[in-house]
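[job 4471] stage=fold_predict status=RUNNING
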Amino acid sequence: MKKNFFPLFFKISDRKILLVGGGDVAERKIRQLLKFQCQLTVISPEASKFINTSARQGKIKWMKRPYISPEAVEYSMVIAATDDMEMNRLVFNDAASNNIPVNVVDIPELCTVYFPSIIERGNITIAIGSDGKAPFFTRTVRESLEINIPDSLAKISLLAEKFREFMKEKCAGNFNLKNKMCQRFLKSVENEPERWSVENPPFDEWSEWLNE
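[job 4471] inference complete, writing structure tokens
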């Protein structure tokens, strides 16, 4: 099967992101984006209560006016979420012609990127997509998977981060030792993760593994 979209995690923290639109659909996208500490600008003559409140709180910048071409070129990523097809196409053309990632909500042919359904557990993020062709189905898949992914995975992922930092110091340049330590960690954390604390990682216990 030919695939058009490559799964990729895109760092947007501190980047300028533009969202054109101020209704319910725009609000859903804003709620997603605010988790990632981006510099979000919303352009729309009218906006929902949530968008108003977020702007007053300084979480986003709201420009209370229509989109003015070609201002999309000033941003790292662009989303259009209006009910005006002509406006959506204008935003898309401005962004796409300048190789700026753009998503026109619910119109796959006007997207160079799209929003997946997401499962988050600590540092672990699972993204589920359908090339933008069946988002309702990806939501169903996400709900099915969430049932089988334990909340404890969040703690394990944070412990794994601490363990990686520990290995960088103790196992530098020794691939075989790193591999042995990783296997030991995975076996231990699977059997009794509640013994360990993220705030106070068991460095002494991990150090003992080095000589096993």
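[job 4471] summary: The beta strands are 16-20, 39-43, 61-63, 77-80, 102-104, 117-121, 124-128.
[job 4471] exit 0
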